[in-house]
Amino acid sequence: DHINILVNGNDEQVRLVIRNMTGSIYLSEIKNINQQRLISLSVDDFSTGIYFIEISGRTVKQFSKILKNE
């Protein structure tokens, strides 16, 4: 399973941080932004639960929440 996240701002690279419900960092990495301003993220390895996504850069700071079902 994949999700696509639309990234606002003008940055060509952003930091993506994903936290679980307890606030522990599940994933933290620098992502390149494509021309469509999308980040594609595989959630195959995620356990069932709620995750919080933070995307930050010079011109963007946005937050999302995803729910991973079985």
Please characterize this protein's 3D structure.
With 70 residues, the chain is mainly beta. It has no helices and 6 strands. The protein has strands at residues 2-6, 13-19, 25-32, 38-42, 49-56, 61-68. It has a 4-stranded antiparallel beta sheet with strand order 3-2-5-6, with no helix packed on it. A two-stranded antiparallel sheet has the order 1-4. A hairpin with a 5-residue loop joins strand 2 (13-19) and strand 3. It is globular.
Provide tags for this entry.
single chain; 70 residues; mainly beta; four-stranded antiparallel β-sheet; two-stranded antiparallel sheet; 0% helix; 59% strand
- Write down the Rg: 12 Å
Q: Per DSSP, what share of the residues sits in E-state strands of 2 or more residues?
A: over 45%
The secondary-structure class comes to mainly beta
How many helix segments?
Answer: 0
Taking the sheet with the most strands, its summary is:
4 strands, antiparallel
Work out the helicity level: under 10%
What's the overall geometry? globular
Low-confidence stretches: none
Would you report the number of β strands? 6
Could you give the order of strands across the largest sheet? 3-2-5-6
| C-alpha termini separation | 11 Å
- Give the helices and strands as they follow along the chain: EEEEEE
